[in-house]
């Protein structure tokens, strides 16, 4: 089993749609969690950290379920500019990246 | 504030040749990371430095890969000799500290193609 698993997608959604990504992790001792965004042929950039109580940043909501060992990212009112690959990252002693979920938002 | 700088941006070499990549982290960042990102995969940590000391190099193929950060600032990653499967983007990242919640800032990467 991979340490961090994501559905690779692609997710193709129309503008304005709500889309959700899940990510599962295998190490129950993992302590911190993040979502990074990576545009095509660009470097990853931090989108948001994921806190135990869940957190929201504008149209983005991240949640953590420690019991089931998964984190989620919800994007509301999708914009064309949200098109990217979303990387789930789990940190225990080092950062472990998922392979990413590709999102395409279409007009 | 200047970001993480990397050079070269692109490199094409033949297998069994050697190659070196350079990274200059954000000023004042104590921790520096090298990642390998193969097409279609997420970045994989190769090595992590804290100042000029190695914190984690468990996933570095030490028979062919080496890295150093002699003065605790910029760093070089070397591959000698290169194999076809080393074709990837090599990303350098830095963070202010070394806690598990630290935000890592990535450079633009070096795209390596081994023929």
Overview of this protein structure:
The complex is a heterodimer of chains A (107) and B (115). Chain A has no helices and eleven strands. The radius of gyration of chain A is 13 Å and the shape is globular. In chain A, 36% of the residues are buried. The mean pLDDT of chain A is 94. In chain B, a hairpin with a 6-residue loop joins β4 and β5. Chain B is globular and about 35 Å long. The termini of chain B are far apart.
Helix segment tally of chain B = 0
> How does the overall form of chain B come out from the CA principal axes?
globular
Structural category of chain A is mainly beta
How do the SSEs of chain A run, as a string of H and E?
Answer: EEEEEEEEEEE
Q: Largest interface, with Cβ-Cβ < 8 Å?
A: A-B, 21 and 19 residues
Mean pLDDT of chain A: 94
> Assembly type of the shown chains?
heterodimer
Strand content range of chain B: over 45%
Low-confidence stretches of chain B: none
Could you give a short account of the major beta sheet of chain A?
A: 6 strands, mixed
Kindly state the percentage of residues in helix of chain B.
under 10%
**How much is the average pLDDT of chain B?**
94
Helix coverage percent of residues of chain A?
Answer: under 10%
Query: How far apart lie the N and C ends of chain B?
Result: 37 Å
Please outline the major beta sheet of chain B.
7 strands, mixed
Alpha-carbon Rg of chain B, integer? 13 Å
């Amino acid at each position: 089993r991979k340490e961090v698993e994501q559905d690779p997608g692609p997710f193709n959604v129309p503008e304005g749609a709500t889309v959700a990504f899940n990510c599962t992790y295998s190490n129950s001792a993992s302590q911190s969690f993040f979502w990074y965004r990576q545009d095509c042929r660009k470097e990853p950039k931090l989108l948001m950290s994921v806190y135990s109580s869940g957190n929201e940043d504008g149209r983005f909501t991240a949640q953590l379920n420690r019991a089931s060992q998964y984190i989620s990212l919800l994007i509301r009112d999708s914009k064309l500019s949200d098109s990217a690959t979303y990387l789930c990252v789990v940190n225990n002693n080092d950062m472990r990246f998922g392979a990413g979920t590709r999102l395409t938002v279409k007009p | 504030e200047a970001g993480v700088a990397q050079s070269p941006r692109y490199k094409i070499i033949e297998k069994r040749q050697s190659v070196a990549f350079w990274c200059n982290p954000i000023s004042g960042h104590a921790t520096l990371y090298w990642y390998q990102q193969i097409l279609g995969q997420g970045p994989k940590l190769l090595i992590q430095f804290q100042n000029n000391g190695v914190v984690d190099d468990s996933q570095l193929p030490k028979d062919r890969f080496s890295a150093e950060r002699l003065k605790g600032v910029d760093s070089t990653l070397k591959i000698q000799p290169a194999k076809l499967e080393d074709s990837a983007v090599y990303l350098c990242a830095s963070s202010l500290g070394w806690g598990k919640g630290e935000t890592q800032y990535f450079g633009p990467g070096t795209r390596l193609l081994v023929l």
